[in-house]
Amino acid sequence: MHRRSRLLGTALMACVPAFGMLLAFGPTAGASTASVARTAPSAREIAAARTFIEHLAIGQHGTDHAVAGQASRIEGLTKVKSTNWSGYADTGSGFTSIKAKWIEPSASCGSATSLAAFWVGIDGFSSASVEQDGTLIECDGGTAFYFSWWEMYPTNDIQVVGETVEPGDSITASVVRSGTSYKLALTDSTNKANSFSTTQSCTDCANSSAEVIAEAPCCVSGSTPYPLSDFGTFKATGAKVDSGTISSFTDDEITMVNGTSGKVEAKPGALNSSGNSFKVTWKSA
Asked: Residues with Cβ < 8 Å from 72, sequence gap 6 or more?
């Protein structure tokens, strides 16, 4: 979700205390962490959660992607580490489309605020812009909130569309470029109210990468990502990049690690034999 400061968002300033105040009426810190059998959040809770994430920075990247030791390159694959991304990024030039499907994961929430975003996008891996859309899980006080969203960074912050995304929903997300025009679309075939399609313009976007990513949105302070919500497993399927698949291009396998300790937080599995499907497994917050 945001770029510039490192992979998912970019303008979060004083949102942590503000969000805590907004949810003073919500679940207490000792609330149940069971998200599968979750009760429906109130309208006020949803509004507070929505206000919070609309100031996130998703997709921030750039200098965040440090190659793990020596460049571990095998058949066009480079393994890299990031402080807030996990998944795959294709690199090159002139990318025109990215598409993938997933079943919305179910979060196991503790009492602390944590986030997890799942998205497809063009740019952001090595550029200052990102054109992206997807879903987002926000945990607060033991309650999980699920949203659909899109963003053209740095033109705007996250644009929240759907507030009724649920674990198990069937999601298809895509970004398609034609010249300087970008069509961002998401279909929630389970809950259609979360679906959208919007066309935006960007005259100076780099079109230098295409990604399918699980992310810990930014930022607690400075460029430190929020704790990563325990989403279990995120599985992207049917991924298409331009007229090919992820493996059709030079691609980077990205492991999310803690920026201080180096502890693995989310780990991607290998691409399937068709080069269009993979899993990201949550390891730690």
From this structure: 78, 79
Class of residue 236 by CB neighbours under 10 A (exposed 0-12, middle 13-18, buried 19+): buried
Kindly list the domain boundaries of the chain, sorted by start residue.
15-282
- How does pLDDT run along the chain (285 residues), one tens digit per residue? 643 233 333 322 223 222 222 222 233 223 333 333 445 667 776 777 677 666 666 665 433 444 343 333 334 578 999 988 999 999 999 999 999 999 999 999 998 899 999 999 999 998 888 999 999 999 988 999 999 999 998 888 789 999 999 999 999 999 999 999 999 999 999 999 999 999 999 999 999 999 999 999 877 556 678 899 999 999 999 999 999 999 999 999 999 999 889 999 999 999 999 999 999 999 998
Residues 208, 169: Cα–Cα separation, whole Å: 31
Burial of 17 per CB tally in 10 Å (0-12, 13-18, 19+): exposed
Token output for 251: 């691609």
- CA-to-CA distance for 127 and 91, rounded, in angstroms? 11
The whole-angstrom separation of Cα 54 and Cα 46 is 12
Dihedrals phi, psi of 12, to nearest 5 degrees: -90, -10
**Whole-angstrom distance, CA of residue 188 vs CA of residue 33:** 25
Tokens matching residue 239? 């991924």
- What is the tally of helices (H) and strands (E) in the chain? 2, 16
Tell me how many degrees the CA angle 234-236-241 measures, rounded to the nearest 5: 145
CATH topology of domain 15-282: Jelly Rolls (2.60.120)
